[in-house]
Amino acid sequence: MKIIYLGTPEFAVKPLENVIESGIHEVVAVVCQPDRPVGRKAVITPPPTKIIAQKYGIPVLQFEKIRNGGAKELKKFNADIMVTCAYGQILTKDILDVCKFGVINIHASLLPKYRGAAPIQYAIVCGETETGVTFMKTEEGLDTGDIICAYKTEIRECETSAELAERLSCMGAEHINEVLSSIENGTATYTKQDDSLANVVKTIKKENTVVDFNGSGKETADFINGMFPLAYSFCKGKKYKFYRAKQANVFSGDGKTAKAGEVIFADKRLIVACGCSAVEILELQEEGGKRLAARDFLNGRKILAGDVFSAGNTNENKKA
């Protein structure tokens, strides 16, 4: 089959590469978001999928809004099917009707759970023990189309959303060709989703990634791992980013009651009290510093037992 592949970030690269390199199906065009400024210096940078397409000499289309004239451009490629994978724009009916086999999507959750923009992050944040990749028929609703097939995987202990995303991308790549072939030869099956089980998750914004220590130690660890690399808190007037955490197997070193956010160990291990139990921070970064394992970070003794992490730059966390 001739395929138009719509995908933008790193997550979309492995399935794209596998289709190209296998030679079973032909990618006739790649559609991705426009080049964007990246980093502190705002260097205009092409999306990862564009780099792959150019490597293989495949035409690239970049629409600011694909609904404005996109269908006309896509029809020129005379493709049989379109595949979307973290493309980043909603497809209108005229786009969905361009190809005879329509559009299928590689979605990074076990639908109908976690429809929307951040399924990988919220599977971890919500404490799921498993997730997976769903191949689905794309329709006008948000991830509401019929399920073709799904593949499960366990969420590992302390696994971050970035690590899980890499594994799910590999799963999508592993199965994309067989899914496309089943559609081509008419053996694919389509199962309607149970909308009553759906949970729509929105795009993550920076203000939603501050760590709230009032939950349990496990909930706090899941939040930090799921929101990687954006989870943060303040202590003594400085911002700290947390990259990895796990539920601590201790609560207080001396038996006293510690309040949520209070550091109860800061010697080789960084353990912070939560509303229930405690969380061990495994990797962190001080504002302006480097990302370090907690053991290495604590060699500088910048955080001490009794210090308090909180959501804002309050007078309390500015104390020396």
Report the major sheet. Answer: 7 strands, mixed
Q: Report how far apart the termini are.
A: 65 Å
The radius of gyration computed from the alpha-carbon positions, rounded to a whole number of angstroms, is 23 Å
Portion of residues within helices: 10-25%
Q: What is the approximate shape?
A: elongated
Order of helices and strands: EHEEEHEHEHEEHEEHEHEEEEEEH
Given as residue ranges, the uncertain stretches (5+ residues, pLDDT < 50) are 315-320
Q: By helix and strand content, what is the structural category?
A: alpha/beta
* Mean pLDDT metric: 94
Please tally the β strands and state the result: 17
Total DSSP helices? 8
Beta content: 25-35%
Give the strand order of the largest sheet, numbering strands 1, 2, ... along the chain: 5-2-1-6-7-9-10
Describe this structure in a few short sentences:
Helix content is 23%, strand content 27%. The chain has 320 residues and is an alpha/beta fold.
Overview of the molecule:
By secondary structure, this protein is α/β, with parallel strands linked by helices. 23% of the residues lie in helices and 27% in strands. The chain is built from eight helices and 17 strands. The protein has a seven-stranded mixed beta sheet with strand order 5-2-1-6-7-9-10. The longest helix has 25 residues, at 161-185. The radius of gyration is 23 Å and the shape is elongated. Mean pLDDT is 94; it is low at 315-320.
Attribute tags:
320 residues, alpha/beta, 7-stranded mixed beta sheet, 6-stranded antiparallel beta sheet
Structural topology:
Blueprint: E1 2-7, H1 13-22, E2 26-32, E3 36-38, E4 43-45, H2 48-55, E5 60-62, H3 70-75, E6 81-85, H4 93-96, E7 103-107, E8 115-116, H5 119-125, E9 130-137, E10 147-154, H6 161-185, E11 200-201, H7 217-226, E12 232-235, E13 238-247, E14 263-267, E15 269-273, E16 278-286, E17 292-293, H8 294-298
Parallel strand pairs: 1-2, 1-6, 2-5, 6-7, 8-11
Antiparallel strand pairs: 3-4, 7-9, 9-10, 12-13, 13-16, 14-15, 15-16, 16-17
